[in-house]
Structure formats: C-alpha cells, structure tokens
Amino acid sequence: MGVINITPDSFSDGGRFLASERALAEAQRQLSNGADVLDLGAQSTRPGAEEVGAEEELRRLLPALQAIRQHCPEALISIDTFLAPVAAKALEAGANWINDVSGGRRDPDLLRVVADAGCPVVLMHSRGDSQTMDQLTTYADVVADVKEALRECSEAAIQAGVLESQIIWDPGLGFAKTHEQNLQLLRDLEQLTEGPQPVLIGPSRKRFIGAVLNEPRPKARLWGTAAVACRCAQARTAVLRVHDVGPISQTLRMAAALW
Prior knowledge:
With 259 residues, the chain is an alpha/beta fold. The chain has a single domain (2-204), classed as TIM Barrel. The chain contains ten helices and eight strands. The protein has helices at residues 20-32, 54-71, 84-92, 109-117, 142-159, 179-187, 190-193, 207-213, 222-234, 245-258; strands at 2-5, 37-41, 76-80, 97-100, 121-124, 167-170, 200-201, 239-240. It has a six-stranded parallel β-sheet with strand order 1-2-3-4-5-6, with helices on one face. The two termini are 20 Å apart.
C-alpha cells in the first residue's frame, strides 16, 4: 500500500501532493513501482496535528481522487479518514477501501457507510486523537491489549452491518505507543497475523525507527523501514503501508522468497 498525503502538514511529506496533478503523478509512479493499493489521506494524523473537518478534507481529497480514478481506472484506492461524510463521498467518487485510524471510534456512522458499500475497511488500534495519544500509552500487555481492542472494534463493525470478511486489522504503530511498545508489537506480530483477520502494518519513516537509528530525518529512515518490512514478510503480514514504494516493494519480494 502506497501512501499519498494530500495535506500541508503530514510528518514527512506535507505539501508535496496537495495539487491534484502532483498526486496523480505520484500515484502513477507508485503503481509502476509495485503498489497494489494507493492510500489517499487529506487529514494529517501525526502527533499534534490539527483536525480540519470533513469539508476541508473533501476539498483537498476529491480533485486528487477523481484524477487518479480517471487516469488509473484499475487502481485499488483506499481513503485514510475517520469521518463518515468523507468516506461516503470518496466511495461515491470511486474509492475502494476505507482506512480508519480510529477503528470506528471517532464517527460510528463510518461503519454504516462501509456496511452499505460492502467495501474493505482497515480498523486501526489507537487511543485519543492526534493531540492526546502520546499521553495514552499505558498497557498491561501491549500485544494482548491491542488484540483485544481490535476484536472489540471488529464486533462493533459487525454489529453495524460490516461483514467479517471486509475487515483488516492494523495494530497502529506510533499511535498511543512508546518506541519499545512498537518494537514489542513487531516482535510478537504472529499473535495478530495467525488469527482470521488480514493484518496491515504501517511502519514507514516513523519515530520509533528514528529512535532506534538515532535518525531525526523521516525521509532518511528508509533502511529501518526496510528492516521492518522483512519482519512483516516473515510474520505473513497481508499489507504493508509505506511511502517508499519502489525500494520496499523490492525488499518485500526478496523477503517473501526467503520466508
């Protein structure tokens, strides 16, 4: 899954793809470099980000989504949003998946939108929001607690009419997790991937990689991201969400041959 942030303030590439023609060019580049799914987001979810609301999110998102759908008709397009109005309009405009960093917590109507559309949905584990999540990192057992919370998110989705076969789990690396907790989730990844739900992992350029490598520059964390990609291949993760599609696609192909 290739990341395309249509935002001015995302942590590693804010502002690069605000113009729809740039977003389209990046989509075409990612598809040619091995992306299976494109993940478009118009609301930054980095720690400390300000929420802009559905109207502004759609103003940023729809021109890029429409351009990519027109010029890349076969592409699988995921929309990174936790708001039901954004999800609904994006699906009408040709999106295929919804990727909710709140796991359905922030806007329960989003689950109804997904149920009505019959589309895949990524339910991510998180706590609080961009302003508060760094203060919400206390767990009895981070792996067991995340797994239980994802199970609860799935139950809420199923009650809203979402089919279990539509649900993808994401343990939410970097969201209400310390650096060590992120590493623990990756060390014990089989506890998630051996279950019935496909698992998506989003490690790309994140702070815990910078902490391990003493690398403050997000774009310089490619090799750390590649190491995580190998671990994800070993654990049979279904989807890896990354910015650097070309190098990580090659890494995954090699890792898959090894494991």
